[in-house]
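re: ur question from yesterday

yeah so i grabbed the chain u mentioned. its 304 aa long if i counted rite. heres the sequnce exactly as i have it in my notes:
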Amino acid sequence: MRKLSEQEIERILSFLKEGKPLPEDYRTILFDTKKEYELVYDGKEREEDILADTMAVPLQKVKTFRNGKNDDGWTNMLIFGDNLQVLKTLLQMKQEGKLKNADGTPGVRLVYIDPPFATKQEFRGSQDQKAYQDKIAGARFLEFLRKRLVFLRELLSEDGSIYVHLDQRKGHYIKAILDEVIGEHNFKNQIIWKKTNSPKSQAVEFGNQHDIIFLYAKNTSYFKLITIYREVEDSYKDAFVHDDNDGRGPYQTVALIAGKSQRTAGRKVFEFRGISAPWLYSEENLEVFWKEGRIYKTRGEDTD
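ran it thru and got these structure tokens back, copy pasting raw so excuse formatting
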């Protein structure tokens, strides 16, 4: 902390004597926030106060869903209640060793949240029943979500990650808050979720065509994507009609020379293996294909 001048000390004392809050510019002078930067807004609380002052609620089992015969390891929970208070309870469970992954590591490995978007609307179900309200806006919305992000950060396991789904209304604010709460260095990507394949044409404004999902890792050194394979569909297999029985398996052929619809004024025509044509690949790549035995002459030079 830098040394305060006599005038600054007197000014601070006058605020304290009168019971007035200190101006925002004194906060970074008097207290070490340990943050390079942060988003400042009305009503923002200290993380320590959020974690300490939030009340936990006991979880009461209402119904158990069986997962076949062997359900001893089935630990998923569907919880109904105030999610902030529930998060405090889950954090206590983590600290007590009761919330852990299948391999015994404490915490939660994956978090995906789709919070309200600050639309100031009330949403109803298919039978016109009340679904939920999305009327918290402005600074209240930012703090509403930030409090939950603070708890979610604490709940994540060391190799955990969090996906936060938002739209254009508050996404830019929440990105700054996520950088502050979870760490800018832990930001992995902004994922675009395209909502429609048919862009809407609007006369008065640009249409909203996508939402955004922010991906953060608790610790980037532990973060990794796991490749998941699935059975190849028959419709895809049917396209591979050729097989030279050379151990490389079935394959399909694709054109190497541009057809009429692909020929543009800028496409380069050059000679390869005695054929002058507007090739779709560079001469270097064609040479690689040739050496690997992957080029086949299926008909005459005229590919149209």
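noticed a couple things. The radius of gyration is 30 Å. also The helical segments are 6-17, 27-30, 47-53, 83-95, 138-155, 171-183, 234-237, 283-291.
anyway ttyl
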